[in-house]
Design a protein that fits this description.
- It is a single chain.
- This protein has 249 residues and is an alpha/beta fold.
- It has a single domain, classed as Rossmann fold (3-Layer(aba) Sandwich), CATH 3.40.50.
- The chain is built from five helices and ten strands.
- The chain has an eight-stranded mixed sheet with strand order 1-2-6-3-7-8-9-10, sandwiched between helices. It has a two-stranded antiparallel sheet with strand order 4-5.
Length: 249
């Protein structure tokens, strides 16, 4: 995928984040000059495998990789958006501090990416797109930096994980309730029909449980929301996709 779109490695200073991330961040050519820039941060792809019934060893020829990132990247690039793509590794290497977790490392990485790249870019529209536990980094970033003038939408594919609320004043929580959507699994304990707290943003429960299926189910809705947020007057837009209602999950 990176070769198909001529992606380049995004330099990450090791003093700020785990060395595990040094080869996990890439960017599209010319992302600095794009009018719309997407920060796409996601967990590592899921691997499904069958084991031999006698030896219990994994049979590689019956294993397959579910890379949910490819579909997202193809759409982002087809829209001529700039892209910063970060794959969050399942394990951290070279870490001595037991309190330094994937979640804390992801939070630091999101802050670093905003401070050193996104804030300096020309983008008028910034989109946050998170999948899995990586969403925690984006939610933390919104509360830690002044992003509301440029960030038009924040999409969080949470799955079965607990939903983390935004930390900030009432104005920020109100902004978040209008600009953020979290997609959750069908078996998630949170009921979207209840009066959702503003700090959670909008909650949409999908009829799926597996993360790759949740992403497939909610992706059209996420695309619609992004385009609607970027366009100030959707009804006046020449994009026919914005003249219909949001897709059903």
């Amino acid at each position: 995928m990176t070769e198909a779109w001529n992606m380049m490695k995004l330099p990450i200073a090791r003093d700020y984040v785990s060395e595990s991330f040094k080869d996990e961040a890439v960017c599209s050519p010319g992302f600095y000059n794009a009018e719309t820039l997407v920060l796409f941060i996601h967990d590592a792809p899921e691997v499904y495998a069958q084991t031999d019934p006698l030896s219990n060893k994994v049979e590689l020829h019956k294993s397959f990789l579910l890379d949910h990132a490819n579909t997202c990247i193809e759409w982002i690039m087809s829209q001529n958006y700039g892209l910063i793509d970060v794959n969050v590794p399942a394990m951290l290497t070279g870490v001595d501090d037991p309190d330094y977790t994937i979640e804390s490392a992801t939070k630091e990485l999101c802050l670093y990416t905003w401070d050193n790249y996104i804030e300096l870019a020309d983008a008028k529209n910034v989109i946050f797109f998170g999948v899995g536990k990586a969403c925690a980094g984006l939610i933390n970033l919104i509360g830690a930096r002044d992003v509301t003038k440029r960030v038009k939408a924040s999409l969080n594919f949470i799955g079965q994980d607990p939903i983390k609320g935004i930390q900030g004043d009432d104005d920020l929580k109100m902004w978040y309730s209008k600009h953020a959507i979290s997609y959750i699994a069908s078996n998630h304990p949170l009921d979207p029909e209840m009066k959702a707290k503003r700090r959670w943003g909008q909650i949409k429960k999908t009829p799926r449980i597996a993360m790759h299926e949740i992403l497939i189910t909610g992706f059209d809705d996420a695309k619609y929301f992004i385009e609607k947020q970027i366009c100030e007057d959707p009804q006046a837009s020449g994009n026919p996709e914005l003249k219909r209602k949001a897709p059903e999950l």
